Amino acid sequence: MRKLCLGVLGSGKGSNFRAIHEAIRNGRIDARVAIVCSDVPEAGILQLARDAGIPRYSITETLFKTRLSKEREEELVKQLQGAGVELVVLAGYMRMLKSPMLNAFPRRIINIHPSLLPKFPGLMAWRQALESGERVSGCTVHFVDEGMDSGEVIAQAEVPILPGDTRESLHARIQEAEHLLYPEVIGRFVRGELP
Ligand code: GRF
Predict the structure, then answer these.
(1) Distance CA 121, CA 128 (A)
(2) Which protein residues touch ligand 1 with a CB less than 6 Å away?
(3) Which of 32, 36, 95, 136 is buried deepest, with most CB atoms within 10 A?
């Protein structure tokens, strides 16, 4: 049977993409990654995709830093649709999505964020949690809407904040939780278990 096609977007090192790819390889997700897209040409995620033999697409945006221009975003939609993508997975993608993407993939774009949303949206959420004296943080998988980390929450995993934690140690612990939660949620989506 034809497998559901994922399109993964990332701007960074790609550890979540690696966890998803691993989960596909060992049968925990019955899907395939049809394309990996990045707005950062030297991003680790593109290197990982290359090593895995997965088609890649580099987005070139020079006008804006926090989003794509309408034309660039329309190009991205074309690339994803051309690859047959049915679920868009944001894995460390650092730009906001606008109407071309949101209209092309309604309720079919998900993101992982390193906090227990709605607490600490935005950048370096682990640092925000640490500095506000929280005892618990974690990660959230949510549908993407036009806001910043504001879409409907699908699943969360808690992570303790321990005495002596640094930004780095907390971020690393949250990422371990992400690498379990994201593949699990994608597996549920593929099996039709999400609303
Ligand atoms: C993750 O911490 C994720 O929560 C955030 O960006 C980071 C991406 O890390 N949205 P990686 O590139 O998957 O290692």
Answers:
(1) 9
(2) 10, 12-16, 91-92, 112-114, 139, 175, 178
(3) 36
Residue with CA closest to ligand 1 atom 9: 92
142 is catalytic: no
Pairing of strands 87-90, 109-113: parallel
The total domain count for the chain is: 1
In a domain, 155, yes or no: yes
Q: Which of 110, 120, 171, 178 to mutate to test the pocket of ligand 1 (most atoms within 8 A of CB)?
A: 178
Residue 195 within a domain? no
Strands 109-113 and 136-143, how do they pair? antiparallel
Catalytic residue (one of 21, 113, 142, 171): 113
Range of the domain at 107: 4-190
Position 157 pLDDT exceeds 80? yes
- Span 50-101, pLDDT tens digits: 999 999 999 999 999 999 999 999 999 999 999 999 999 999 999 999 999 9
The model's pTM is 0.97
CA distance 6 to 84: 8
